[in-house]
Specification:
This protein is α/β, with parallel strands linked by helices and 349 residues long. It has five helices and 40 strands.
Length: 349
Amino acid sequence: MQFTAAQIAMLVNGKIEGDMNAAVSDFGKIEEAKEGQLAFLANPKYEDYLYSTKASIVMISASLELKQSVNATLIRVEDPYSAFAGLLSKYQEIKTQQLNGLQDPHFISPSAQLGKNVFLGAFSFVGEKVVIGNNVKIFPQVYIGNNVVIGDDTIIYPGAKIYHDCKLGTNVIVHAGTVIGSDGFGFAPQADGTFKKVPQIGNVVIEDYVEIGANATIDRATMGSTFIRKGAKIDNLVQIAHNVEVGNNSVIAAQAGVSGSTKLGKNVMIGGQAGIVGHIVLADGVKINAQSGVSKAIKTPGAAVTGSPAYDYTSALRAQAVSRNLPDLEKRIKQLEQLVQKLSQEKLV
């Protein structure tokens, strides 16, 4: 696919400086881009590459003042990063829309309902009474259990598994290897020291515009639903336990884990490898630093914590600063002790 500067400017509401007929068919980083590629400049640290890049078109900020002439055609926008991200999304959408039809071999239950323009990859399985919306793209080797509902324009990448009774909204993206609806970790201790499995009879509900990374696991509820609310973004290798609720537009980075029945508010941010205990609530806008261990509820909206156990981020930074200064503080204390001892001896004399 090839796009001209004029077409791109129209898509991103930008202003052209240079050849409006300049064309690109691919994307590249500004420091590595070649002729026929589109790049963008958002970070001032990379400005020097603007004057040497081989890219045919570069998207830049409307407020950037050039230090010298530029060979590439420029498209000025208010926010180059967001505009470029939107353009990439449009490009990917066009490519995905080209996928259509059913690849063999596959299995679709006679009771399943498929919408218009559905793509189903080879070796995929669609169970009984499944409902799949319009323009859904299901890549090879995907398993969709009985009674699953999948909304319009959702994409499910290779090897994902969606257990029975789960519900996915519209414009959801599920990446390869992810498992949605596996049993929650529920076992009742017995008098003889063994554990009796507690049946997990709930489901997982994933609302609109959620994206889930590769090899993530989201457990079904013991009863009721595990909820991933609208706009949430979950990274690769994340574990979401049974009956958890992830609030609107919250983001969880790779290898983090959220224990059972914990409720995350809206716009919560959880760093990589953080661990959250079960049965607590995190207020809207809470920020958890990477590798933190959260052991109790955080009720203050917008609070930022770090450490294990996690506590106030600013206090933690002060404690770290003090810790780094301990050798110097020890030296000063010894000097003060010597001075006090000397003054005491002089007083006795």
